[in-house]
Amino acid sequence: MSSEKTNPEVSVILPFYNAENTLQAAIKSILNQSFKNFELLLIDNNSNDNSYEIARRLAASDSRIILLNETKQGVANAMNFGLQNARGRFLARMDADDISLPTRLEKQLQFLNKNPEIDFAGSEVKYIAHSKNTAGFRRFVARANSFHTSEEIERKRFIEIPIINPTLFFRRKLFEKYGACLDGNFPEDYEMQLRYLEAGVKMAKLPEPLLEWHDYSTRLTRTDKRYSTKAFFKTKAAYFKKWSEKNNLFHPVIWVWGAGRKTRQRSVFLEEQGLKIKGRIDIKESKDDALFYEDIPGPGKLFVVSMVNNTGAGENIRKFLLSKNYSEGVDFILMG
Description:
It comes from Draconibacterium aestuarii. By secondary structure, this protein is an alpha/beta fold. It contains twelve helices and 13 strands. It folds into two domains: 10-227, Spore Coat Polysaccharide Biosynthesis Protein SpsA, Chain A (Alpha-Beta Complex), CATH 3.90.550; 237-334, Rossmann fold (3-Layer(aba) Sandwich), CATH 3.40.50. An eight-stranded mixed beta sheet has the order 3-2-1-4-7-6-8-5, with helices on both faces. It has a five-stranded parallel beta sheet with strand order 11-10-9-12-13, sandwiched between helices.
């Protein structure tokens, strides 16, 4: 009989850095999963608090835990080290300050097994606030939880990150074919999802919360400039150019919905990518250099990129354009 160890079905990758207050609960939420055939790769990224000792102690108590070290700083580097060492057919992401609900791995695995056309799955999240100024994050979570199908994700990819990162669960072949996280001055999780979508990967989300997403003041999305609004729009612009080349009949010419200061600043990123803004559309008739929205021509005459980022504005613009028989993804796209 061979003594070779059987590979686990799922590899859960959990990078951590100075997470002593939350790491144990995050790890235990994986160890307590209803699905048992997994390995948990803990990747220490130069922690200087008690995190490593917590991870070492738990690793000694459960053979499914593999404790690794990545000395090159950054969550992308730690994640990639985990991917390179993972043995499972399926790969799952986990953060050191979140909680996976007990049936998360079981349900995501069942979903991908029942839907072979989908390679990349997430889920809704239960938002848990631990900091001030949570209104923006609450709106983001509500929006992220509101759509699930691959068609919706493809259409909404340029609004926000389609799938909240610590809910990721995907087939190993994606990493092998399209690569891992890239490290740079951009949100590595959003870039990876846009890169996979650009390659034609089908994504979906389970329509139920399978993770508690804890919003601490120390969360990278709050503290790291790579997750700034500017960084997100620059990333969107780079991948929108690729999308426009394939889908915009008027490429590289576009019309931008929005004539305010912030929209003008953000649309510069599109121009840097070679997009040509022929005109702007606005809800105010008084804007001399903008077309009043009620005067837009019928469908098939131009391509509209909505970049208005005010709460609810994008959906109102979408409804208006649909009422004018514009087709989303053919005549317009939302990017705000």
